[in-house]
Amino acid sequence: MLREERKRQLKRLIFFKSIELFKEYGYDNVTVETIATSCGIAKGTFFNYFPKKEHVLLYLGNSQNDHLQEITQKYKDVKIKQKLLLLFKELLFVYMENSDLLKLALSETIRSALKDESKNIDLFKESIALLIDEAKTNKSIQSRFDSETIASVLVGIYFNTLIGWSMGQDESASIVAIFERQYEVVWEGIEQH
User: Fold this and answer.
1) In the chain, what are the domains?
2) Rounded to two decimals, what is the model's pTM?
């Protein structure tokens, strides 16, 4: 168990050091060797954790799914509409704090369209669908739509918000405010039966 925790810590270290270097020198100007040196590890060790430099950016999707589980537990006693809103807002705050990271991660994700990232998105949708199923079971939400469809739409507006915000479509509003507006519109449709 201790060994696994050390591996997770090293992977996070590589991720955060890489992001610092990307911000300082630009993504294209940072090599794997530079990242490894900055972390105090061998270049080969880097490849034990990330197959290519691009995968450092894709790690954000993986870490968000882990973070999603923590947030779900944090708000376990909150009603479903508010729980989902709080969950998405906390995930969005990560991007708000690291807008340069968002732009890098999104462009790389879109450009590479790797299977690993689509698995992360599927896992994200499944987690949201489970929360909705649970809310339907305990009657805190009634909807004529199936949970998978609702989850897909919510995840869709989440990514739409990220992409629009990263491209500067609505610079007058925060990323969270943009999401909340869209969330409210969609939620009205979800609750109609």
Assistant:
1) 1-50 (1.10.10.60), 53-191 (1.10.357.10)
2) 0.64
